[in-house]
Amino acid sequence: MINKLVEKIKKTGAPIVVGLDPMLNYIPQHVLDKAYAEYGETLEGAAEAVWQFNKEIVDKTYDLIPAVKPQIAMYEQFGIPGLMAFKKTVDYCKSKDLVIIGDVKRGDIGSTSAAYATAHLGKIKVGSKEYTPFGEDFATVNPYLGSDGVNPFVDVCKEEKKGLFILVKTSNPSSGEFQDRIIDGRPLYEWVGEKVAEWGADCMGDEYSYIGAVVGATYPEMGKVLREIMPKSYILVPGYGAQGGQGKDLVHFFNKDGLGAIVNSSRGIIAAYKQEAYAKFGPENFGDASRAAVEAMVADISGALAAAK
Ligand SMILES: O=C(O)c1cc(=O)[nH]c(=O)n1[C@@H]1O[C@H](COP(=O)(O)O)[C@@H](O)[C@H]1O
C-alpha cells in the first residue's frame, strides 16, 4: 500500500491528505435538516448527516488527492450508527481509489493490539468464512506500550500489504510534556523515531517503508531532525491549517526527492465554507469550497517546496 500511496502522490502532485473529521457543527444546516427529516434527531440522523457530508466532500476532491484520513472518534461519538458511517465512508473512498488512513491511534498489550490490527487492517475468520471488518489501508498507532504493542500491527501489515503511521512527535501544545523529556541525552521523540526506523527497515516497499511516523506540522525544527533519523519512513504531518502549520514550515519534513511526507488538514478543508476566504461558495456549495481549499493547500506546499530547491 505504501507503493500505491507514493504513486498516487506523484500522480496528483499533491502530498496531502484530507482529514474526514466531521463534527455536527461543521455540517451545513440543509444537510442536517434532510437527515433529521428522514431519521429524526437521533444518532441515526446524525450518522446520516455525517455520511452525506463526507460523500459530497469526497466527490468534490477525490481526483485531486491521494488519500483521506477519517478520524474514528468523530464517528464513535455517534455510537453504532456513527461507526457504520465510518465504514460506509471507508468503503466509498475505496471505490474512488483513495488510500485510506484510519486514524484510530491504537496500541495495547500484544494480544489486544493483534485484535485492533485485525479490526482495522486485517481479516477475521468466523467459522469457515472470512471478513474484512473495517478495511483501512493504514492505521495510526500509539507506540507507548513498546515493541510488543506495535509488532502485531507490523505482522498484519506484512501479511496484508498495509501500513502504519506511528506517533513520534504529536502536534498538540502539550506534546512536549512527555515526548520532549531528555533520556540519556536525547529527547524521547528521537528515541521513538529511531525505533520507527528500526521497525520499518525490514518493511520496505519500492522506495519507502510501510512503517511511517506521525510528526506534527507545528514542530518544524523537530521535523527536520526526525526526517534524518527516519529517512525511509513516510511522515504523516498533521497540524496544517487549523492548528497553524503552513507550507513554509513543512519543507524539511520532505526528502530531497520531494517525497517522504504527506500533510493532513481536516477542519481547514472540510469546514472551508465557514472561512472568510471561501465564504463566497456559501453553505449550499460546501463541497466546492473544500475543493478550492485543497487546491490552495497544494499550491502552498508545492510553492514552498519549489522555493526551497
Ligand atoms: O495522528 C494524527 O492524525 C494526529 C496526530 C497529531 O499529532 N496531531 C493531530 O492533529 N492528529 C490528527 O490530525 C487531525 C487534525 O485536524 P485539523 O487540526 O482539523 O486539521 C485530527 O484528526 C487529529 O486527531
UniProtKB/TrEMBL annotation:
SUPFAM superfamilies: Ribulose-phoshate binding barrel (SSF51366)
Source organism (scientific name): Mediterraneibacter faecis
GO molecular-function term, one example from the UniProt record: orotidine-5'-phosphate decarboxylase activity
Family: Belongs to the OMP decarboxylase family. Type 2 subfamily.
Cross-referenced Pfam families: OMPdecase (PF00215)
Entry keywords, A to Z: Decarboxylase, Lyase, Pyrimidine biosynthesis
Keyword Lyase found: yes
Highest taxon listed in the record's lineage: Bacteria
Catalytic residues as annotated in Swiss-Prot or TrEMBL: 105
SMART domains (alphabetical): OMPdecase
Functional pathway: Pyrimidine metabolism; UMP biosynthesis via de novo pathway; UMP from orotate: step 2/2
PANTHER family: OROTIDINE 5'-PHOSPHATE DECARBOXYLASE
Protein name, entry field: Orotidine 5'-phosphate decarboxylase
Domain Orotidine 5'-phosphate decarboxylase intervals: 15-281
UniProt-listed GO biological process terms: 'de novo' pyrimidine nucleobase biosynthetic process; 'de novo' UMP biosynthetic process
HAMAP family named in the record: OMPdecase_type2
Keyword flag Lyase: yes
Gene: pyrF
Coiled-coil segments: none
EC numbers for this chain: 4.1.1.23
Uppermost EC category: lyase
Catalytic activity: orotidine 5'-phosphate + H(+) = UMP + CO2
